[in-house]
């Protein structure tokens, strides 16, 4: 598969990507657990069919020590026993926040209550921001047809300042 446009070589896309990566730093530096960040990013990417982001978040999670069992079960997290209650709340928020068009009320009050039960104010803000950011990244890469498979953990570190 060939990309429709090389987002890394185009001047406008690269400038936007740098600002996008800097926005992601706010989330990455938050107290929201890193494992939760990767699980949420992976699940949204799976739902949106973003191969590039699925590749990236799987590899980043693996590099951070995530197990293959948990990564393989993210798509079926409701039936899996390997996720904490807090992670399950975050994954529910990721799904509902990604599938906004599928539910007239967006994120349910039940899911929101579970998120608030497990995450403090800053972590909740980071989680909401992460769901928005990963969905935007998915849309950019799906539209551009950015191919999956070539991502290396840390390859975007130089983009942040």
Automatic annotation (TrEMBL):
InterPro entries: AhpD-like, AhpD_core, CMD-like
Superkingdom in the source lineage: Bacteria
Transmembrane segments: none
Residue stretches making up the Carboxymuconolactone decarboxylase-like domain: 20-96
GO MF, one annotated term: peroxiredoxin activity
Pfam families: CMD (PF02627)
NCBIfam families the UniProt entry points to: ahpD_dom
PANTHER family to which the protein is assigned, alphabetical: 4-CARBOXYMUCONOLACTONE DECARBOXYLASE FAMILY PROTEIN (AFU_ORTHOLOGUE AFUA_6G11590), BLL7811 PROTEIN
Designated name of the protein: Alkyl hydroperoxide reductase AhpD
UniProt source species: Pseudonocardia halophobica
Lineage: Bacteria, Bacillati, Actinomycetota, Actinomycetes, Pseudonocardiales
């Amino acid at each position: 598969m060939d990309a429709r446009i090389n987002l890394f070589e185009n001047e406008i896309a690269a400038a936007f990507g740098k600002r996008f990566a800097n926005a992601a730093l706010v989330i990455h530096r938050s107290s929201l657990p890193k494992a939760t960040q990767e699980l949420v990013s992976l699940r949204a990417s799976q739902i949106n069919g973003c191969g590039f982001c699925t590749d990236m978040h799987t590899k980043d999670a693996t590099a951070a020590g995530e197990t293959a069992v948990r990564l393989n079960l993210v798509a079926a997290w409701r039936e899996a026993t390997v996720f904490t209650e807090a992670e399950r709340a975050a994954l529910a928020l990721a799904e509902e926040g990604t599938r906004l068009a599928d539910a007239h009320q967006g994120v349910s009050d039940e899911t929101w209550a579970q998120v608030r039960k497990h995450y403090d104010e800053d972590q909740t803000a980071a989680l909401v921001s992460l769901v928005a950011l990963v969905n935007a990244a998915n849309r950019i890469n799906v539209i551009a047809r950015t191919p999956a498979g070539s991502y290396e953990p840390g390859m975007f570190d130089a983009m942040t300042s």
